[in-house]
Amino acid sequence: MSAPTDTTTGAEPDQTDLDAAELEAITRKFGNPRTTIWLVLVAAIGGYIMMMGMGTALQLRLSVINEELATLVFSRATSLSALLMLVVVPIVGALSDRTLSRFGRRRPWIVGGYLVALLSFFVIGNTTSSVVIIAAYIIGIASAQAGFNAYSVIPVEGVPGNMRGRIMGVMGLCGALAMSAGAYIAGALVDISTVLLMTVPPVLAIICALPLLVLYKDPRHDREEIPQGGTLDMFAHMFVNPVKHPNFGLVWLSRFLAGAGMAAFLSFFVLYLIIRLHMTPSDAGAMAGRLSLMSAPVSILVFTGSGWISDKLGMLRPLVALAAVIMSVGLVVAATSTTITGFTIAWMIFAIGQPMYLTVDLALCAKVLPNEADAGKDMAVFGLALNLGNVLVPAIAPTLLGPASDNYPLLWGVAAVLCVVGALLMPLVRGVK
């Protein structure tokens, strides 16, 4: 969405004119962006509690059932679910781009994904069968991710580019606070009710999404406005060609490497507290909440500061690279720690790098999208960069951790190397600061 060239003077419009034209076009189609921002942020609170809290809830649920098998079952559940998401999420993104419903393109997929997730997690809270838990988690988290990805397209298409850095920063802040809230909720409910442990996060996601679902102007699109072609054409263009769009490919690869580092740290730290530091499941859940709460003020500063810098200075690549390096330092400290004090220091370092990365990385993804009409599908493909890490890391982690499931120096050392490699890719991205 850009203003046309001034043909009377031959001069190119300045950035202010371009921003004003984009604002006008988005307001006409999707409603007032400032209203959209508030609706998106409210939905982010519950959505992030679900997406970032279910892993902790599942670890605690499995530890209550059988601590010795918890790591193996958790790894299988998370790796298989992420593998399914590799297929489901881009398909749902492409289908949402092509949805002609009178309820809009994104709304039906958010509602459907969240409701299926709630039902699946309810099943986990009512069974002790590892097979049933794995199957229900695969369906539930894939559905939740599909709904969340449909939601995450809204700040891309309904908010002007010069506002996205700040909203992504606040969304990331919601994610950091949601991690703390999710850990506290899980720690508080693990000894009270396994059903509530598994269902409160998706219920909160649905409640927080209600204002967005009701008030956001998610317009019905005509056939001329959606990506053209039939089902076969949709599948043929499901993924972006990295040779034709090298910036997209490089940013995707960097995101995958950093995402693998995040998955190695955040998916296994509760089990680290239980197995390596010998905490009970309830104590580990409470400690996870305290760690998240301790890092929240730092995350607030990093999210808001990095979002402001990226908007004001247009700096994206250097901040993404710096964030990846900081995460690698946190992983190295965690890999060498043997006490809760050492791990707390590692957590605080990681709490600087991760929010910075998630804030600026999303803005960078939006900058390198090949085609606005395919925004839902392409953002879903970017989401796969993180999900693929969630496939490979849990699958490889049991081997790296060893027979006793306690070789965290190796697991987190490898994760640190991946983050550094991701940072080294940033100078290769062209045309973006």
From TrEMBL:
Protein localization: Cell membrane
PROSITE patterns referenced in this protein's UniProt entry, alphabetically: MFS
GO molecular function term, any single one: transmembrane transporter activity
Membrane-protein topology: Multi-pass membrane protein
UniProt xrefs under Gene3D superfamilies: MFS general substrate transporter like domains
Transmembrane domains' residue ranges: 37-58, 78-96, 108-125, 131-154, 166-186, 192-216, 256-275, 287-307, 319-340, 346-369, 381-404, 410-429
Keywords tagged on the record: Membrane, Transmembrane, Transmembrane helix
Residue ranges constituting the Major facilitator superfamily (MFS) profile domain according to the UniProt record: 39-433
InterPro entries in the record: MFS (IPR011701), MFS_dom (IPR020846), MFS_trans_sf (IPR036259)
SUPFAM superfamilies: MFS general substrate transporter
Main location: membrane
Name listed for the protein in its UniProt record: MFS transporter
Organism in which the protein naturally occurs: Actinomyces respiraculi
Upper lineage: Bacteria, Bacillati, Actinomycetota, Actinomycetes, Actinomycetales
